[in-house]
Amino acid sequence: MPGVIPAKWTRMWAERSPEVPLDLVQVTAGEAADQVRERGVHAALLRVGGDRDGLHAIPLYTEVSVVVVPKDHVIAAADEVTPGDLADEIVLHPLDDTLDWVSPPGRPALQRPDTTGDAVELVAAGIGLLVVPQSLARLHHRKDLTYRTITDVPQSQVALSWLEDETTDEVEQLIGIVRGRTVNSTRGRQPEPAQATKSEPAPAKAQAAKPRRKPAAPARRTQAAPKRGKPRRRG
């Protein structure tokens, strides 16, 4: 999906499961869900929203929304803007827009561009401005354009998606990687324990032998000393 960079996850997959190759397929945001349903891919990174019938989806992170403007535009001097700051501006709304707008800010253009890439070209030509997830602004970076954070507008949430009835061991492994589980995590499918063929008696508890006491030595008899009387005086 455009804007998403899975390099870290593919590297971790290669380290943990080198025997199973992980092939990446580039698809548009609108094609990702159908590619999973048609089994063109086992799983897909897509933006939450739209038709997800028959699919599991685990949200991974939410992207900041930004407005793309020419570098010499007055908005380029601000740190962030609000929809009210775009009220007098023409804001382009491409057909492949990934934000779930109730009502886009600014004034609409006479015609909607087919793609986000086409809309970026129109921004560079001074036709209007464009609000997109930050990852798409980086993807379509141009030296003559810049972008600023815009608050109080919809944001794009990126999720990992796969078929509901096909949660395989490989999918569980991929879920663990994108969610940051360690290699020793116990999450996921666990092998069934082997049944014992023969029960073995539990080992008897060994009783510590009490140390024997040495027999007491017989008391030594002491011979009483003869009483000494008074010395007799010779007559």
Automatic annotation (TrEMBL):
It comes from the Bacteria. Coiled coil: none annotated. Transmembrane segments: none annotated. One of its GO terms (molecular function) is DNA-binding transcription factor activity. The keyword DNA-binding applies. Residues 216-226 have a biased composition (Low complexity). InterPro entries: LysR_subst-bd (IPR005119). Pfam families: LysR_substrate. Residues 182-235 are annotated as: Disordered. The keyword Transcription regulation applies. PANTHER family: HCA OPERON TRANSCRIPTIONAL ACTIVATOR HCAR, TRANSCRIPTIONAL DUAL REGULATOR HCAR-RELATED. Belongs to the LysR transcriptional regulatory family. This is LysR substrate binding domain-containing protein. It comes from Actinokineospora terrae.
